[in-house]
């Protein structure tokens, strides 16, 4: 796994002496994160084929080991973030969407279950990822807007804090659309995406089927975990180029860098790097009155 340099700050918890994911989970609860909806977006663009040349021995970043002894970066991130926010045995719903394959391209997302229902726990997410991935044809370009808009749509039906984790292998191609979606995530719920079925996936088209936008009672924190060889300079600076938002709701993490910087406890290092800004984001959401009091 390559160890590229990173300038991204990891937040106020980077030097805290957590000894386990359980301790980190407890600290998140102490900060006020009693209950949260985890939403995962997975990048299936074509660049995953070659962006593991250095960091994954030339294999695709979506390589599935038949024996199960080697986990690819997507499986690792899902497992670590999922186990931190939800315990391993938890059956809490996790909404998971793919984007960027040959059918959705940069316009839509697809659900991991045929009926559009969420996965039940981290193990279910990993099981469905392993089943679905070999059947997909990778596509592109890279656009985070569809997954962000669909994640925001979940806000309308929920009274909990929304955390969207996007796992991706490259820079954003559709910068304008993605930036606009991130700004929207700090202010509005974008609702009523019209579904259509295709094969065994359920698709949601974020632009042509967008019906209306409405003010929401909650807000969405967005974490992008960059996997593969990069380059990541643009993503590390991306938040500084965004228009003014109601709160700082976007955070980028360089997977390879964090894992290499934490050789003894890579899982804990990644969890801290990804979630260190959640307490500050939660405080901002409270100040804006976007958090339901039942989540306190």
From TrEMBL:
Q: Which residue numbers delimit the Copine C-terminal domain?
A: 60-192, 215-292
Which stretches are annotated as coiled coil?
Answer: none
Organism whose genome encodes this protein: Phytophthora nicotianae (Potato buckeye rot agent)
What is one cellular component GO term in this UniProt entry? Answer: nucleus
- Please report the name of this protein according to its UniProt entry: Copine C-terminal domain-containing protein
UniProt-listed GO biological process terms = protein ubiquitination
Looking up InterPro entries in the UniProt record yields:
Copine_C, E3_ligase/Copine_domain, vWFA_dom_sf
Q: Name one GO molecular function term.
A: ubiquitin-protein transferase activity
